[in-house]
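Lab manual, section 2.4: Encoding a predicted structure.

Procedure: take the sequence of the chain (248 residues), apply the prediction step described in section 2.3, and record the output as structure tokens. A sample record is shown.
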Amino acid sequence: MRTIGFFIAFVAIWALVSERKIWDPTLFPSPDQVLETLWQRIKDHTLLDAAAVSLRRVLLGYAISLGIGVPLGIALARSTWLSDTVGSFVSGAQALPSICWLPLALLWFGLNDRAVLFVVVVGSFVSITVAVQDGVRNLPPTYVRAAKTLGASRFGLYTRVLLPASLPAILIGAKLGWAYAWRALMSAELLFVSLGLGHMLMMGRELADMSQVLSVMLVIVLLGLFADKVIFGSFEAAVRDRWGMQGA
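Recorded output:
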């Protein structure tokens, strides 16, 4: 109820400000105008097609990032040699904005989806790797010693001890990776002419259609809330229950 009340108050203030025409209505449209534009873009399938393309790109890139970031983060935490070599590159890449990879991706892959996918993967897997590395590195060493004492194999040490114990850190890394994947995708789609939500944002700017810009931003926010509250929220509840923190 607090969340619903906040958004109702937010829309009410937005409507009040737009009615007073403090800014030009073409630059600050009312909620009614944005909803009307949103409905028109849904009816002509423009928004649905763009959302489908962006979701396909971000989901594929995010899956690849998880497949690279989780095992790499565990390996960096367990190997001093890897941490001093590959870990240094990962730490340096973390400070590099993902959009900086776009010129390189365009030269390597050309003007196609592979360039956008490359930017999404690079922008996402670094944050996942760093979060998993920190989570595994901060595990109590008694876990590993106890597992070895009980005869755990090297493979079992990773699958039955390190991975389950680092699930909270992996989940944090997964959420960060999802956020960075979306940011990288929007940056690439804004600069690279292709169908997608980012391209719709750019078209709205070029046409001075602020209602379209805000309607696309609203869709992106709703997709982010769905991922955070429904998908990641379910995983977080399961992890808190597993660790006896459900009431916290």
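Check your result against the sample. The longest helix spans residues 46-78.
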